[in-house]
Design brief:
By secondary structure, the chain is α+β, with helices and mostly antiparallel strands. It is about 45% helix and about 20% strand. β9 and β10 form a beta hairpin. The longest helix has about 30 residues.
C-alpha cells in the first residue's frame, strides 16, 4: 500500500508541476488554455475555472498529462480569438511555453533538495565495509572500518565527505567521467590519515548504480557481523545460531564486518561452513550449511537470518543560504549526470540496463517513503530532475523535439514542413515505445533477479 500510494503521489506531483509550468507560461504569453489534464484517456472528473473557463480534468491513465491550447492547426478558431492562438504567437513565446514544463520540474528539484538540506537527514556515516579482494577499492588499499573523510578529483583540492550517500555520488560521477577518485581516510575513530587513489575505470563502470559501486568496492557502510532475527527452520536456526551472536571467523578467516559475511554466505550455497561466534562473551563453534536460492540460472547461499545492524548515521543539514546553494548545485549535478548517462548509453559506453521504468520508480518511491519524508523528498527531487532533462531531449513528442522545430524555424525563417512533422511524429512514437519497452523489461528483470 505504501509503494502504490507513494508512486501515485510522485506521479501526481511531477505531472501537475510540469503541466502547470506550461499553463502559467501560456497564460503569461496571452495564449488561451482550453484544457489542463492530469492523466490520459477517459475523463473521470472535470471542472471549468477562470475567465477563459479552462477545463481542469483528471483522466483514467495517470502516466502523464497535457495542456491543450487554442491552436488553428487543431481546429477552427473564432476570428475574434485568433490572436490568442498558440500558433499565432512569436517564436520566442512558443519556445518559452514549451520549455516552461521542464523548467518547472528543475525548479521543483531545487526547492526539494534545498528543503532536505534545511530539514536535515540522517545518512549512513562513510565508514566502509571490507571491499572484495578483486575490486579497485581493495587494490587501492581500502579496508574494513576505513572512514572516508574527504574526496578530490586531482589529489589536491579536497572536499569533505558528509556521508556514505555523498561518497556514492562522488564515485558515480568519477566512473561516468572516467577519472580516478582520490580519498582521504582514517580509522573508524578518526585516528590517523592517509590518501588513497581509486581507479574507477574498472569492470562495472558500464552500469552506474548500486551494483557498479559494489563492483568498485565502495558504497556499503560498515556494520558488525551480528545476527538479527532468524527464520524458524532456516539454516541459521538449524545450526544452533541465536539472535545477537557476533560472528568472529568463518573457516578460519577473521570476519571484520557484516558485508564480508554476507558475501561469503552467498558464495557457498549448500557447502558446510565452520563458524566461530561470540555469544555473551563465550566462543561457540557451529557448522552452517547455507541453502541454495536459484535465480537467473545461478545459485546463491542463504541462511534465513538478518546479518548486520543498522549502520551508524550522521545528521546532514545546512543553513538557509548554504542549503539553497546546495539545492542548486545538486540539481545541476544530477542534470549533468543524467545527460552524461544518456550520452554514454547512446554510444554504448554505458549499459541500457540503467534505463528504469514505472515499476522501478514505484519500488524506490515506496522504499524512500518508508525511510521518512526527507528521503522521499530527495527521491522526488531526483525523479523531477530526470523528468525535466528527459523532456528536453530532441525527440519528437517531447518538449525538446518542439524546441528543435523552433530552432529550425529560427535558422531557416520558415516552419518545419507538415509532411516532415508527420514523419517525425511517427518516428518519435516508435522511439518512445522502444525506450519504454526496454525500461519495462529492465524493471521486470530486476524484480525476478536477472539484473
Amino acid at each position: 500500500m505504501t509503494t502504490a500510494l507513494a508512486f501515485l503521489v510522485t506521479l501526481a506531483v511531477l505531472v501537475v508541476i510540469h503541466e502547470y509550468g506550461h499553463y502559467r507560461a501560456a497564460k503569461a504569453c496571452g495564449v488561451k488554455v482550453l484544457r489542463f489534464s492530469v492523466g490520459f484517456g477517459r475523463v473521470l472528473w472535470s471542472r471549468r475555472l477562470g475567465v477563459d473557463q479552462t477545463e481542469f480534468v483528471l483522466s483514467a491513465i495517470p502516466l502523464g498529462g497535457y495542456v491543450r491550447m487554442l491552436d488553428e492547426r487543431e481546429g477552427m478558431v473564432d476570428p475574434s480569438q485568433a490572436h490568442r492562438a498558440f500558433n499565432r504567437k512569436r517564436l520566442w513565446q512558443r519556445a518559452f511555453v514549451v520549455s516552461a514544463g521542464p523548467a518547472a520540474n528543475l525548479l521543483l528539484a531545487v526547492v526539494l533538495y534545498s528543503a532536505v538540506q534545511w530539514a536535515g537527514v540522517q545518512e549512513p556515516k562513510a565508514i566502509l565495509s571490507a571491499p572484495p579482494a578483486e575490486t579497485a577499492a581493495a587494490r587501492a588499499g581500502l579496508k574494513s572500518g576505513d572512514w572516508v573523510k574527504a574526496w578530490s578529483a586531482d589529489g589536491m583540492d579536497w572536499q569533505d565527505v558528509r556521508s556514505m550517500v555523498d561518497l556514492r555520488w562522488q564515485a558515480m560521477e568519477a566512473m561516468l567521467e572516467g577519472r580516478p577518485l582520490h580519498l582521504m581516510v582514517s580509522d573508524s575513530q578518526g585516528r590517523g590519515s592517509r590518501a588513497v587513489r581509486v581507479d574507477t575505470r574498472s569492470p562495472g563502470a558500464q552500469s552506474v548504480g548500486p551494483q557498479a559501486l559494489r563492483d568498485l568496492g565502495l558504497g556499503v557502510p560498515w556494520t558488525p557481523a551480528v545476527l538479527g532475527e532468524l527464520k524458524a527452520g532456516g539454516p541459521a536456526e538449524r545450526a544452533g545460531l541465536r539472535r545477537g551472536d557476533l560472528v568472529t571467523s568463518v573457516d578460519g578467516r577473521v570476519i571484520s564486518d557484516a558485508q564480508t559475511l554476507r558475501d561469503m554466505i552467498r558464495q557457498r550455497p549448500e557447502q558446510p561452513m565452520a563458524w566461530t561466534v561470540d555469544r555473551a562473551g563465550s566462543s561457540v563453534a557451529v557448522t552452517v550449511v547455507p541453502r541454495a536460492e536459484r535465480s537467473g540460472g545461478s545459485a546463491s547461499g542463504r541462511i534465513d537470518a538478518f546479518v548486520g545492524t543498522p549502520p551508524q548515521t550522521v545528521l546532514v543539514s545546512m543553513g538557509p543560504v548554504e542549503g539553497l546553494t546546495e539545492g542548486l548545485n545538486k540539481t545541476w549535478e544530477v542534470s549533468a549526470l543524467t545527460v552524461s548517462m544518456i550520452g554514454q548509453m547512446i554510444v554504448g559506453e554505458a549499459s541500457i540496463k540503467n534505463l528504469s521504468g514505472p515499476l522501478t520508480i514505484a519500488d524506490f518511491a515506496g522504499q524512500s517513503a518508508e525511510k521518512g519524508w526527507t528521503s522521499y523528498l530527495a527521491f522526488l527531487a531526483l525523479v523531477s530532475v530526470s523528468l525535466g532533462v528527459l523532456n528536453l531531449l530532441p525527440l519528437p513528442m517531447l518538449d525538446g523535439g518542439h524546441l528543435m522545430y523552433y530552432l529550425f524555424e529560427w535558422v531557416t525563417g520558415r516552419p518545419v514542413p507538415d509532411v516532415w512533422l508527420e514523419r517525425l511524429h511517427r518516428g518519435g512514437i516508435a522511439i518512445l515505445f522502444a525506450l519504454m519497452s526496454v525500461a519495462i523489461f529492465n524493471d521486470v528483470a530486476r524484480l525476478v533477479g536477472f539484473h
